[in-house]
Amino acid sequence: MSNILPPDLARTMYHDMFCIRQFDSKVVALVDDNEIPGSCHEYCGQEAVAVGVCSALTKTDILTSTHRGHGHILAKGGDVGKMFAELLAKSTGYNHGRGGSMHIADVGLGIYGANGIVGAGAPMACGAAHKFKLAGERNVAVSFFGDGAINQGVVHEAMNLAAIWRLPVIFVCENNQYAISTPLRDVSILDPYIRAQSYGMPGVSVDGMDVAAVFEAAVSAVDRARSGEGPTFIECKTYRYLGHYSGERHMKVTYRTNEELEYWKRRDPIDLWAARLIEGGLCTSEEISKLNQKVDDEIARGLQFARQSPEPQVSEALEHMYAVSYPNTPARGAEL
Ligand SMILES: Cc1ncc(C[n+]2csc(CCOP(=O)(O)OP(=O)(O)O)c2C)c(N)n1
Ligand SMILES: [Mg+2]
Predict the structure, then answer these.
(1) How far is 89 from 95, CA to CA, in rounded Å?
(2) Is the pTM of this model over 0.90?
(3) Is residue 109 a part of any domain in this protein?
(4) Partners of 204 in the β-ladder
(5) Nearest CA to ligand 1 atom 6
(6) Is residue 132 one of the residues assigned to a domain?
(7) What sign results for the dihedral spanned by CA atoms 299, 300, 301, 306?
(8) Range of the domain at 309
(9) Are 146 and 174 in contact (CB under 8 A)?
(10) Closest CA to ligand 1's atom 7
């Protein structure tokens, strides 16, 4: 597969996966040091899903994300500095420091928001896709969600709506096999992708540790969506290396075994892709080291930007909180 990908894209995919890994590894340390208030849901291990899907998108395509959203946002072109600033609650962050990890959005980049409500991004993606269709725009909308969302009613309503209206939506189920500590096998007899058949859309299951496999499935789904044929469901089998959220590593939890973790780490998406790039003659190991250094520099610069950024002012606390939706409607803060 690496041989038929344009070399620049193949290297960019490596860069983006490593950037996500390094970003969220840094987040772990910052949460532990209380520099990030609260906690985060880190994406380490799942990088091939976000990067494989987003590499098949253009800037005007959109995505809706989840509580575990850092990877989606970086893969869609999010800025490392503005992300760190948001997590550090600084005024230069994506949400001016008001939202934090689970609300990062950048409408200009087609990032219609991380979301703390499991499954809630699916109908939002349908709404965006409906608009694209009505306006005759050839964009697509991607809804990322976890295996924990596949029994949420709203996801099923969204899938049905997308199918009957032939909306340009791609439902991407990141099956990391656990919803907090609940294994998928305890709550669903069938694999997630099989659900797609009930709604009359193609459903595929791919190796979510293989960025090329994810990319290939995403390209087919994007082609289908852009040509007006409707939605696709892609299940990506993957694994999260860290706990459900940052705090879990300080708890004694036993729902996963070390053997299971080690099994998945042996199939690390970044290591696998580096090996494929080298084997395919697309990169030397020295070039991989240079890319790693480039990413580490970007992470260091982004964090420095965030650390040097000002805190939001108390006097501005009500700013950026409410949308002014209609002309002549005063901002809610202004009424108070
Ligand atoms: C509607 C709703 N129900 C429950 C929760 C609490 N909750 C937060 S994350 C989570 C598990 C989600 O698992 P999954 O969708 O598999 O995503 P993962 O954490 O594995 O990435 C739950 C139950 C929530 N945020 N929203
Ligand atoms: Mg899960």
Answers:
(1) 9
(2) yes
(3) yes
(4) 234
(5) 118
(6) yes
(7) positive
(8) 7-335
(9) yes
(10) 118
- Ligand 1 pocket, residues with Cβ under 6 angstroms: 67-68, 116-118, 146-149, 176, 178-180, 244
**Amino acid letter at 58?**
T
Q: What is the DSSP string of 10-28?
A: HHHHHHHHHHHHHHHHHHH
Q: How many domains does the chain have?
A: 1
Q: If we measure between CA atoms, which residue out of 289, 282, 216, 206 comes closest to residue 2?
A: 282
Question: If we measure between CA atoms, which residue out of 102, 96, 34 comes closest to residue 73?
Answer: 102
The pLDDT tens digits for 272-326 are: 999 999 999 999 999 999 999 999 999 999 999 999 999 999 998 888 877 766 5
Ligand 1 center to residue 181 CA distance, Å? 10
What is the distance between the alpha carbons of residues 268 and 115, in angstroms, rounded to a whole number? 26
What CATH code is carried by the domain that includes residue 199?
3.40.50.970
Amino acid identity of residue 211, one-letter, is V
- Side by side, which strands form the sheet with 203-207? 62-64, 141-146, 169-175, 232-237, 203-207
In ligand 1, the atom with minimum distance to the C-alpha of 146 is: 15
Torsion-angle region of 323 (φ positive above 0: left; ψ -120 to 50: alpha; else: beta):
beta
Give a yes or no: residue 1 inside a domain: no
> Does residue 2 sit within a domain?
no
What value does the mean pLDDT take over residues 263-271? 97
Residue 23's contacts (CB-CB under 8 Å, 6 or more residues apart) are 70, 74, 80, 83, 84, 299, 302
Q: For residues 87 and 93, what is the distance between their CA atoms, to the nearest angstrom?
A: 8
Task: Give the mean model confidence (pLDDT) for residues 269-273.
Answer: 98
